[in-house]
Design a protein that fits this description.
Number of domains: 2
CATH architecture of the largest domain: Up-down Bundle
Radius of gyration: 18 Å
CATH topology of the largest domain: Four Helix Bundle (Hemerythrin (Met), subunit A)
Distance between the termini: 22 Å
Order of helices and strands: HEHHEEHHHHHH
Strand order of the largest sheet: 1-3-2
CATH class of the largest domain: Mainly Alpha
CATH superfamily of the largest domain: GntR ligand-binding domain-like
Largest sheet: 3 strands, antiparallel
Oligomer: single chain
Number of helices: 9
Shape: elongated
């Protein structure tokens, strides 16, 4: 398993979430490819942590559908699966619809300003074909509703399920197909500014359901 070219990248003991995030991000960005075997010893050397937090992270990643544990054999990066990705997309879309319903009634001007700024950054990143910045800006846009709504269970569920879609988002945000999301975001902001909770919630759901993918991806 080729690991990123940094040994002991975390010099201080990591929280479990940090270990999880590091491995998850390496899967999502393609550093660890589908079907690749993840070896505990190499992960330990890369992250500079003991085996325990690594095994805990791999269990979480298995629940999220990003790795597959083969009992007594190995843990591998899960291959892309269209059916499970579609199922996850439907759940994520529903969660963001709920986030909008919770958030819109309590939004302040600074929330709407943050969404507008995030969408502007999103548009610039797409224009510049900067996939990483586009993903970050998109996360910032949707995080406004998720955070403002204040439902910690919803936040936890999104943290678990969204990474499954990230590989698809990465491909989409590198193409012209993503440009329609800019207009969808703008419409969500407009509806939220009007205080139209139901319409904003539906628009959020449709934004996430507009993420297209094929078995070839």
């Amino acid at each position: 398993m080729p690991v990123p070219p940094f040994s002991g990248v975390h010099k201080r003991p990591l929280l479990r979430d940090n270990v999880f995030d590091s491995i998850r991000n390496a899967i999502v960005d393609g550093t660890f490819e589908p079907g690749e075997r993840l070896k505990d010893t190499e992960l330990e050397a890369w992250l500079g942590v003991s085996r325990t937090p690594i095994r805990e992270a791999l269990l979480r990643l298995e629940r999220a559908g990003l790795v597959i544990a083969l009992p007594g054999k190995a843990t591998i990066v899960a291959p892309y699966d269209q059916a499970s990705t579609l199922s996850t997309q439907q759940v994520v879309a529903g969660l963001h619809e709920l986030a909008a319903r919770l958030a819109v009634p309590v939004l302040a001007k600074e929330h709407l300003d943050a969404m507008t700024q995030a969408n502007a950054r999103f548009e610039r990143a797409l224009r510049d074909a900067d996939v990483e910045s586009a993903l970050e800006a998109d996360d910032d846009f949707h995080a406004v509703f998720v955070t403002a709504g204040g439902n910690l269970v919803l936040q936890e569920l999104l943290e678990q399920t969204t990474p499954v879609l990230r590989r698809v988002e990465r491909m989409r945000f590198g193409s012209f197909a993503a440009r329609e999301s800019v207009a969808q975001h703008a419409e969500i902001i407009r509806l939220a500014r009007l205080g139209d909770t139901e319409a904003a919630a539906r628009a959020c759901r449709e934004n996430w359901l507009s993420l297209r993918f094929t078995s070839a991806e």
